[in-house]
Design goal:
By secondary structure, the protein is α+β, with helices and mostly antiparallel strands. It has helices at 84-87, 89-105, 114-128, 133-148, 183-193, 202-213, 216-219, 226-244, 250-258; strands spanning 6-19, 23-30, 34-40, 59-65, 72-80, 169-172, 177-179, 198-200. The protein has a five-stranded antiparallel β-sheet with strand order 3-2-1-4-5. Strands 7-6-8 form a three-stranded antiparallel β-sheet. Helix 3 (114-128) runs antiparallel to helix 4 and helix 6 crosses helix 8 (226-244). The protein is elongated, with a radius of gyration of 21 Å.
């Protein structure tokens, strides 16, 4: 059976780099293939008809053909450009954070990408419609952790398994979730397993639990105070940094813009 010379994909453009004198290599997250790369011949020429469809944050339908090093983009059609994301610097930064997470956590030609692709496009659409950025981003983080297999333990102690009581707790990146406030147990674990504990208030924990078990419509009822928003944002970004074993680039940029 002959291999197809060309094939179609739906994709979100994550980033691109210039290549040679006029070409461009795209990093894409696709519904069909997961993360992949493709080359656009002549993309940097003024006469290129494809370039406008292939900017970051753009949801596109592409026709690809087999190339020597990368598939070649032969046709490009924009499904959604999410234009409001380009008109507001805070929304641009939030969208860049969303793309950075999926880019950092996925590998080329991954399998079972449909759920993550849907989550990605839904989140970009929510941000473009100027939904509450904190809500859209926290919900995205929680669902992405589910899909990646890093679902945090929020209802029972990640160390001893006891049910979490209605009081302020700790969160351990190493243990992957909430740790009940037992000073003796913590002291032993800190010595033997180098367990680091981050304080988490009961209020912040309630919202993280709410996002983990709710639909987006249900999660939208959340109305946390500003300090709780900041606490959950800092905690989640710290968890992602721990899992990646390196700093994320976009949170720092977002903080600068807010200031």
């Amino acid at each position: 059976m002959r291999e197809a010379r060309s094939f179609g994909v739906e994709a979100v453009v994550l980033r691109h780099v210039d290549y040679g004198e006029a070409d461009r290599i795209l990093t894409l997250f696709t519904r069909q293939l997961g993360k992949t790369r493709a080359m656009v011949k002549g993309a940097r020429k003024v006469t290129s008809r494809k370039a406008g469809h292939l900017e970051p944050f753009t949801y596109v339908k592409l026709q690809l053909s087999k190339g020597r090093d990368f598939p070649l983009v032969t046709q490009a059609e924009t499904i959604d450009a999410y234009l409001p994301l380009r008109e507001d610097l805070v929304l641009t930064s939030q969208a860049a954070y969303v793309l950075e997470l999926v880019d950092r956590f996925t590998y080329d030609e991954g399998s079972d990408s449909t759920a993550i692709f849907r989550l990605l496009t839904e989140t970009l659409s929510r941000l473009a419609k100027k939904a509450e950025p904190w809500l859209a981003t926290r919900y995205y983080e929680m669902r992405l952790l589910d899909h990646l297999g890093f679902r945090p333990k929020l209802f029972a102690c990640a160390v001893c398994g006891n049910e979490i009581q209605p009081q302020d707790q700790f969160f351990s990146f190493e243990a992957g979730g909430v740790v009940c406030p037992d000073p003796g147990k913590h002291e032993e674990l800190r010595r033997t397993e180098r367990l680091q504990l981050q304080p988490i208030t009961l209020e912040a924990l309630k919202y993280l639990r709410h996002f983990q078990r709710s639909s987006y419509a249900e999660a939208g009822r959340a109305r946390p105070a500003a300090e709780i928003q900041q606490e959950t944002e800092t905690l989640m970004q710290g968890f992602f940094t721990y899992l990646l074993e390196r700093e994320l680039k976009t949170p720092g940029f977002l903080q600068q813009i807010r200031r």
